[in-house]
Amino acid sequence: MKADLIATRQSILNGEIHPQAVAEACLDRAQSSACKDVFLELTPETLLETAVQAAPFESPLAGLSVSIKDLFDVQGQVTTAGSIVLQNRPPASNDATAIKRLKAAGAGLIGRTNMVEFALSGVGVNPHHGTPAAWDARTEQAVGQQHQAHVPGGSSSGAAVSVATGAAFIGLGSDTGGSIRIPAALNGLVGFKNTARLVPTSGALPLSTTLDTVCALTRTVRDTVLAHEILSNRTVPSAHRPLAGFRLAVVNTLMQDQMDAQVGRAFERSLATLRSAGAQITDIDLPELLELAPMMSTGGFSPAEGYAWHRQLLEKDGARYDPRVAQRLLRGEGMMACEYIDLLQARAHWIERMTLALQNFDAVLSPTTPITAPKFSDVAPGKERDAEFFRVNGLMLRNTSVVNTMDGCGISLPCHQAGDFPVGLMAWHGAMQDDTILQLALVLEPLLN
Hints:
Blueprint: H1 5-13, H2 19-30, E1 39-42, H3 44-52, E2 65-69, H4 97-104, E3 108-113, H5 157-164, E4 170-174, H6 181-187, E5 190-193, E6 214-218, H7 221-232, E7 247-251, H8 261-276, E8 280-284, H9 292-295, H10 301-317, H11 323-329, H12 337-357, E9 363-367, H13 376-379, H14 386-405, E10 409-414, E11 424-429, H15 434-448
Parallel strand pairs: 2-3, 2-4, 7-8, 7-9
Antiparallel strand pairs: 1-3, 4-6, 5-6, 5-10, 9-11, 10-11
């Protein structure tokens, strides 16, 4: 595994390496076959210019490479959200808030990453710009030839592969139903979805104004803490609580259903490892999770709120959308105002019940996704594969979307063994429990690795 951002920054401060050399190495990776279909636009001049300046050396990011999901406005660049429908938009006149904060911290922006069109899928497929191949960031090589033909997860697909391959140290992305944590799990990375309100979404093209969250992918938890502190403009307090000091739950309801064999083995092995290290883990039933499907039966937030933004574009240019994305957005066309208001109220009551049910625990542990990365050939664009695509997409989003619906926070940590396809373990809880989840993740990471 490549050195993380914090270790690389320390090497820069020690005079062992110059940021320009690091930037050039990242650009080499970005232009290699490992990053095929990862970047929609590379900005080598921007990265190198930041790296050669003296000022960033003392900054948190020290001019190191950060990739930007094609969802965020960068002044002078066109934000297309992975679509061809928006390719003729004028360049952004201002930076998104997240971009401003990254630049202020000394980030070297390497380029814009590919994504699921308009961020509306957890699989990672893009019919317009190609689909990056999932990558095993732990071994720095594909797990056999078949690995190259597996999807990276979405919607922050390019962001994940840019970090896993070494082209970037941080991949800025978004998480509306799992779009950071799913690709983290499928690429052996750390992906943290903070409480949505902690990071402004201004300058990011919206999908769901209720659920959209700005966050990032990294290689290690300590890099994740740094990225979150920059994006949220706050400090995560240090803590020295031992593993036994955390009250942990494992949910038997829904979240372990339909696990494939590799995920099942990795999850059970991880729980056994944590228990042997002193973790106090309680198995619980959480029947509230069974209420989610009926609650979302009229379409859910993303189609309703997404359709509100897209309706004129769909009328004018709907034939140029990814048909699967258009199909999901059009579900929002039929939602009545009363149904939307009912959904808002149902969610609020559900959050209250979930908060009460989990009040005695510091975090819940579950598989990030119940399956490993599917083969691209099984879910590639084409009507004949639509049924399998939507089945896989539902499975991919099932566990992670619980956290978004709860307005909570969650982190995906790699928990697979070397040689296996990447698997993620998710630690999560409700709103504003971010510090506890990050502190726990720092304790879990060395045990899971």
